[in-house]
Amino acid sequence: MHSTVHGPAELPRCGWHFGKRGGELQVLCSSLFAVFCVSSALQLPGDALVVGSPAEGSGVVYVYSLSAGQWLQELRLVPSDAAVGDRFGSSLKLSGDYLVVGASGHDVNSLSESAYIFTRSSGWQQQAKLLANDTMAGDRFGVAVAVTEEGHVLVDTSQFCALLFHCAAYVFRRDDTGTGWSQEAKLTASDTVPFDRFGSAVAMSGSYVLAPVAIVGAWEADAVGAAYIFERALAGWSQAVRYEPTGNSTEGDMFGSVVAISGDTAVVGAHWDDGEDVNAVA
Length: 282
Description:
By secondary structure, the chain is mostly beta strands.
């Protein structure tokens, strides 16, 4: 199966090609100049696709559904308080009936950026706007996001933290009503320092049965990068493991620039690892 998804007519450079090769779904950007569409999420087995276009006005998220082998645009999402330059759609994650969208350029009276929760019920509806309790304008809150089907959301402040404060990632949780969201924890590394890029990448894993686990990348920690595992127990969230690159790692490898986690397996990418170590995986 092969199909192509295109954005709106006024953005002809925005498109991806989807196909199965050897049983694996591949997503290939159709143009090196697709500057408008910078984030995307696909829910397998493939019934929903969301694409972020943060440079389009205040930012837009397009929702596609698969019908007869073709991806058709279903919805165009914008937040309820959209303003030009918000960069809504700069990051997004889709899990079950939850979609979390970062707006890393959005300032609330010059206080902070934000993230938004959408739920799938007769289409996608905005359910909540997430704000951390201590971020400032310029922290880039919302530049990376993660969500679990259970109703946990992880939002980071990325690499640009105002006034050289240590960067952090924030956990939000859905309440028992199913519609309210509140900040549950602020995650920081035990050895974080300014400009270590803690929070440059985030991922979460968990379900109604398994306790949630988060992984946070810091691609300039100790110059080569690191990644941190956080676990949630009855006492709250705590750091469990710090991962470092092994082998002939060098400054600038960007270990922790990409992270993923599922169950008891975590994957950490090193964007600029040159692969000179035969045992290295980048």
